[in-house]
Amino acid sequence: MALVPYEEGGGWAARQLHSPWATFRFASRTIRLQQDWRRLGGAAGAVVLCAYLEVEGIDLRDRSAIELGAGTGLLGIVLTLLGAGWMRAPCPPVPPLGARVTLTDRAAALELLESNVQANLPPELRPRAVVKELTWGKDLDNFPPGAFDLVLGADIVYLEETFAELLQTLEHLCSAQTVILLSCRLRYERDLKFLKMLRERFSVSEVHYDSSKDVHIYKAHRGSPKEEF
């Protein structure tokens, strides 16, 4: 089953690029997102990662997840719809975040992000999705170290001056059991530099490549290779 962005009338790539709204189909639901492309960029990486999670049938239940650079919120919304964020029993000794899905970005993006989350999740799922401010390398005291099962990011590898702070943030959020999933395009030498830096701190493997969008998905974690989540 191929999952693609959906818009009535077709012409998604050309039409949504300049539209204040973008529409997608995941988890048997239509997701309609308000967007500001000038501030928040594209969605190819998020679309590919959402499709990967759904098509591969990855079991997200009972897993706490945090998304970095959530932008319009597509990935975090789909994570919640697919079952991430159920509370575990017994619950680990961390703040009320528990096993929720946490969508993070810088302060300027939070209002739009929160609006999209509230508009696209049914009422019974909204308490499982939390929007929080996170500037990489600066707001880490607001997040329990190693408290997440999954750390995800889509299209966040593009500014070389942020690489050190991004890696610092990943190290803070990850325990020995945490799995990182990053989707990105490898267009420039700096992108390969980031992968090299990531491999110096984590075990990294490429788990998927979407040739139609030229997007790679990498899985990373501490220690020896893991076959499953």
Automatic annotation (TrEMBL):
Residues of the signal peptide: none
Keywords for this protein: Cytoplasm, Methyltransferase, S-adenosyl-L-methionine, Transferase
A Pfam cross-reference name: Methyltransf_16
GO cellular component terms attached to this protein's record: cytosol; protein-containing complex
SUPFAM superfamilies (alphabetical): S-adenosyl-L-methionine-dependent methyltransferases
One Gene Ontology term of the molecular function aspect: methyltransferase activity
Catalytic function, reaction form: L-lysyl-[protein] + 3 S-adenosyl-L-methionine = N(6),N(6),N(6)-trimethyl-L-lysyl-[protein] + 3 S-adenosyl-L-homocysteine + 3 H(+)
One GO biological process term: methylation
The keyword S-adenosyl-L-methionine is assigned to this record: yes
Localization per record: Cytoplasm
Family label: Belongs to the methyltransferase superfamily. METTL21 family.
Name listed for the protein in its UniProt record: Protein N-lysine methyltransferase METTL21A
Lineage: Eukaryota, Metazoa, Chordata, Craniata, Vertebrata
